[in-house]
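Record passed on here:
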Amino acid sequence: MISCVKCKTSLPDEANFCSHCGFPVGSLKICRSCTECGANLSAIDRFCSQCGKPVRVVKSTDVNPFVNSKSNAANNDVPKMIAIEGGEFLMGGAASNCVVNLTSFFLSETPVTQRQYFHITGQNPSKLQGEDKPVEMVNWCEAVIFCNILSARKNLTPCYSIGTITDLRAFDSTSPVWKRISCNFLANGFRLPTEAEWEFAARGGKNCDPFSFAGNSDIDKVAWYGENSNINSHTVGTKAPNSLGLFDMCGNVTEWCWDYFENDFPTKSQLNPHGPQIGNMHVKRGGSWLDDAPQCTVFYRSASAPAGKSSSLGFRICQTNLNDPNLKR
């Protein structure tokens, strides 16, 4: 015998729906909660039975992916950095392309986790708690501050400064002083990836992986996104990596990049582009647990104000490879 999860009526094992209230049972068991009122919902609910709020439709066959498998990432207190050999690639989707050449760099294996953010800053602002989940509710300015603090901890030269100041914690994220921030790309410290570095790495670098998503053409194999996330973030490294060993480049949380956002890429080929000189919004890449598949591709672009925060927005860190002989100093 089984019991209806809604009204607790006893039912035969072969039942698919409750004979008393009609709620799905058996293979259609609870797999999520209403984000508005917290009521239990089944995989096929279109509207919450308690408050009537529309909910995302999830196929019953998608229930198993809601359970986190074991992480294959390092998940240390400090992000593990992966060496990315530079090269040339065609950046952007079909509507807008740009030939870009990049020198070599390092990129963190996963988005910065809550464990790592707390280890460096002593804080965990995340809404969706879990020490090996991506940190979120971090704005662009706070991601930059994290990079400088980590650089100082590792006795490296911070990349970011406002004037001569590298300890940026005193500046409120809404202050216009952030317009004066500069990045020393020849410093050996940590920084946010440029938009070009992010896309090159997501595409597999010089491997030029022929996938719309980072590591596979089947998004369910490489990403936690709106159709399989159970409306939540997940432990990093539980989906397959791309060919460079980078996890969660698509899905889980969208990631901040250094660049100011502009609608179109330059028409001429670029070497190590850093984006526009000025702007009001910073680039986000990769899609999240909240997004649909088209928003999780390696070429989809979006942007937010530097003070913007979201439970679906995090970041990963980067370092210039100063040993690359092609790097212009």
In short: Confidence is low (pLDDT under 50) at residues 27-31, 57-67. The chain has four helices and 16 strands. The longest helix spans residues 140-153. The radius of gyration is 22 Å.
